[in-house]
Amino acid sequence: MFIKGIHLRNFRNYKTLDLDFSDSFNILYGENAQGKTNILEAIYLCASGRSHRTPRDNELIKFGENYYYIKIELVRENIEYEIEIQYEINSKKRIKINEVPQKKIGTLMGKLNAVMFSPEDLLIIKEGPSERRRFIDISISQLKPSYFYDLQQYSKILAQRNTLLKNIQENKALFDTLEVWNENLVKTGSRIIKSRKEFIKTLSSIAEEKHGKLTDYKEKLNLKYVSSVKIDGIDSLEDIEGIFRKTLKNSLTKEIYKGTTLSGPQRDDIEILLNENNAKLYGSQGQQRTAVLSLKLSEVEIMRRDSNEFPVLLLDDVMSELDSSRQEFLFENLDDVQGFITGTEYGLFIGRKMKGNKLFHVQNGQVELLKGE
Ligand SMILES: Nc1ncnc2c1ncn2[C@@H]1O[C@H](COP(=O)(O)OP(=O)(O)O)[C@@H](O)[C@H]1O
Ligand SMILES: [Mg+2]
């Protein structure tokens, strides 16, 4: 799939921007703080429903304005789609696909698939479990809109159940209402756990292969889903539900005492292992970087297998961070892919697959096409 064009109004530092893209590489270069990442952010927003930098849409509105608007023209299996997102200050995003208003953000999922590579990806390894959950949640959501709905649903159920647990401390009569929330939590939560477990299994096997190639088979990369619900060796939805139900039952007294839910997907983590050791604890900076690159390339491969088309790749300031052999490997993986590549220079791309590429210079919210037609 590829993006033919983008139109921005009052988005970040763009008053108006209308660009046509190449279906090959689009290189956006310019000094820092000129608006390169802002363009990638707008594309990512249309793919995943949210910015990769902030959960607050108000921040995306150009200073002093009261709305932003993004339109993307997309070609997927030779069919053209138009995605529009409009957001007015302090309201909800309004989404249109082919001019038809959509009731839910979830309908965006699976239309435009995009994978972002950025220096912050290292946080997937370095930070706590929530970064890792975010990474897989966004990937699975793009593949499976129903997963996105389950996540939204689950966080509502969880919030209600936690409020209830706190209130039971004061008012024991509320105890009887807990059962309904337990069951909602178990049903939705188990679907999430099952999807994650399956996704991580596939991701792990592809990542092992990618990482092997990247390290001359000196390092083995593996992933493991570590759940607060003890589901090792358990695969069927029914069995996961059963164990989740039992876990809740066993920890009920403790949960009421603490006033919060102590097990479920919100507590889970993904262990990233290099030669069987935890990459977060034992990996060097360089090893962690390579591992993240393998993970991201694997995400791309999973999306390609799923839809028979490559996702759009957003490479934000990552080229300069990679040594030449990693760069080569990345380029090998970029054949037949539409890529948006930002950097402060473009020397790296000279002589490389230049046919069909476009080179843009970004300066202070203005974009100028330098090469390509
Ligand atoms: N809501 C906003 N309105 C206007 N300008 C903004 C807004 N948010 C960020 N900016 C500006 O956008 C620029 C940063 O853009 P960015 O795309 O991150 O830069 P880079 O080219 O380094 O990737 C900064 O100059 C910042 O002040
Ligand atoms: Mg940037």
Describe this structure in words.
40% of the residues are buried. The protein has 10 helices and 15 strands. The strands form 3 sheets. The protein has a 6-stranded antiparallel sheet, covered by helices on one side. A 6-stranded mixed sheet has the order 8-12-13-3-14-15, with helices on both faces. A 3-stranded antiparallel sheet has the order 9-10-11. The mean pLDDT is 93. Helix content is 41%, strand content 24%. It has 2 domains: 1-113 and 311-373, Rossmann fold, CATH 3.40.50; 120-308, Glutathione S-transferase Yfyf (Class Pi), Chain A, domain 2. The chain has helices at residues 36-48, 123-126, 129-143, 145-170, 178-214, 237-250, 252-258, 279-282, 285-307, 324-332, and strands spanning 2-11, 14-20, 25-29, 67-76, 79-88, 94-97, 100-102, 114-117, 221-226, 269-274, 277-278, 312-316, 339-343, 358-363, 366-371. It is α/β, with parallel strands linked by helices.
What is the element layout, followed by pairings?
Blueprint (H helix, E strand, L loop, with lengths): L1 E10 L2 E7 L4 E5 L6 H13 L18 E10 L2 E10 L5 E4 L2 E3 L11 E4 L5 H4 L2 H15 L1 H26 L7 H37 L6 E6 L10 H14 L1 H7 L10 E6 L2 E2 H4 L2 H23 L4 E5 L7 H9 L6 E5 L14 E6 L2 E6 L2
The site of magnesium ion (MG) has 5 residues, from helix 1.
